[in-house]
Amino acid sequence: MREYSIAAIPADGIGPEVIDAGTTVLASLEKRMGDIKFNIETFDWGSDYYKRHGVMMPADGLETLKRFDAIYFGAVGAPDVPDHITLWGLRLPICQGFDQYANVRPTKILPGIKSPLANVGPGDLDWVIIRENSEGEYSGHGGRAHRGLPEEVGTEVAIFTRVGVTRIMRYAFKMAQSRPRKFLTVVTKSNAQRHGMVMWDEIAEEVSAEFPDVTWDKMLVDAMTVRMTLNPKSLDTIVATNLHADILSDLAGALAGSLGVAPTANIDPQRRFPSMFEPIHGSAFDITGKGIANPVATFWTAAQMLDHLGEHEASERLMRAVELVTAAGILTPDVGGTSTTKDVTAAVVDAIHSSNV
Ligand SMILES: NC(=O)c1ccc[n+]([C@@H]2O[C@H](COP(=O)([O-])OP(=O)(O)OC[C@H]3O[C@@H](n4cnc5c(N)ncnc54)[C@H](O)[C@@H]3O)[C@@H](O)[C@H]2O)c1
């Protein structure tokens, strides 16, 4: 029996609904496989915890998480707590504290799900976006001066380090190399941002020499949105900065049918710390408590977690089950269906147990 300890942090909004769905599916995989066991411990950290304790997680939160093999995360954000407090109080300290510098965001159109793009179906949009996850525009550098006065100023400084850019480029080239097309697009904005982004481009060029079998090109981030929309087939693996990839991956999720199907893995490639797996969506205040949150992104990120843990067979089994269910039209309203979170979860559990999956 192979055992894995998983820290579940459902947190806010629809987070608890989708993580509940995810742990149900993991339990059914456990039964189906017979030789793996997930010891899941759930933490009540998040905005309600903040309202009770004045912090999003305890001071020793990272110490507590260190002993787990992986973290399964829902979403943070509450209507009555400022977003920078929720994000910087929980999700970012975990990503940055555990140096999860590679954020891997696969997107494809699943069978049965309709892209808003005309004449684009499964196979026409199949990307992996690699997001730099430790520095760049989200490094937290900057400050406020003359607070409250007319001359008040706020600065937000993007930090690009040679170490940080080199390691994410290498990760992205490796990812491209592992995929059939061996093709990488490096997203930049070096026309307008002439320091960090020019270094980003130079390092991409340097690292490319280590991967002669990978073809690559470069796109300005604004033009990239056009290419993603008008020519999705021309893309495969994509690498971008923390901010650029954050924006582009929401667009990618929408083009693949819904934010509710888009997963993300925050990876420490050196495996010094647990990596964290989550859907890319947020708390979705508009549908919280209605029982209609799409759990597919949370299932897909569980499949990424299984891959990271070396459980490739379980990961493939889970994704096959999800694709069977979407193909059968058992879909939540965000992707045009009438099913609830529980309906989709039950269908995936059934598919996991059916003998041909
Ligand atoms: N990683 C995170 O925890 C994360 C990411 C993004 C936003 N947020 C936070 O979430 C809160 C709401 O942010 P937002 O509205 O900009 O983004 P959001 O992702 O929560 O919602 C955007 C839209 O997508 C829909 N949606 C998202 N996930 C869905 C799902 N699984 N099924 C069906 N529909 C889904 C929502 O209903 C909403 O209409 C904010 O506090 C924000 O800071 C957190």
From TrEMBL:
The keyword Manganese applies. Its EC number is 1.1.1.83, 1.1.1.93, 4.1.1.73. Pfam families: Iso_dh. It catalyses: (2R,3S)-tartrate + NAD(+) = 2-hydroxy-3-oxosuccinate + NADH + H(+); (2R,3R)-tartrate + H(+) = (R)-glycerate + CO2; tartrate + NAD(+) = 2-hydroxy-3-oxosuccinate + NADH + H(+); (R)-malate + NAD(+) = pyruvate + CO2 + NADH. SUPFAM superfamilies: Isocitrate/Isopropylmalate dehydrogenase-like. Pathway: Carbohydrate acid metabolism; tartrate degradation; 2-hydroxy-3-oxosuccinate from meso-tartrate: step 1/1; Carbohydrate acid metabolism; tartrate degradation; 2-hydroxy-3-oxosuccinate from L-tartrate: step 1/1; Carbohydrate acid metabolism; tartrate degradation; D-glycerate from L-tartrate: step 1/1. Its cofactor is Mg(2+); K(+); Mn(2+). GO terms for molecular function: D-malate dehydrogenase (decarboxylating) (NAD+) activity; magnesium ion binding; NAD binding; tartrate decarboxylase activity; tartrate dehydrogenase activity. Keywords: Manganese, Metal-binding, NAD, Oxidoreductase. Residues 5-348 form the Isopropylmalate dehydrogenase-like domain. PANTHER family: D-MALATE DEHYDROGENASE [DECARBOXYLATING] (PTHR43275:SF1). Has multiple catalytic activities. Apart from catalyzing the oxidation of (+)-tartrate to oxaloglycolate, also converts meso-tartrate to D-glycerate and catalyzes the oxidative decarboxylation of D-malate to pyruvate. Belongs to the isocitrate and isopropylmalate dehydrogenases family. This is D-malate dehydrogenase [decarboxylating].
